[in-house]
Amino acid sequence: MITNNKGDSPVPQGAIRMENPPTFASRKKYEHTMKRHLLFFALLLGIASCQNRTSTTAGEHSLSATKDTANYTTIQWIDSTYQDLGTVKEGPEVEIAYKFKNAGDKNLVIENVSASCGCTVVEKPTEPFEPGQTGTIKAKFNTEGHTGTNNKSIYVTANTKGTIHQELKFHIVVEKS
Question: Of 83, 109, 88, 86, which Cα lies nearest the Cα of 167?
Answer without folding.
Answer: 83
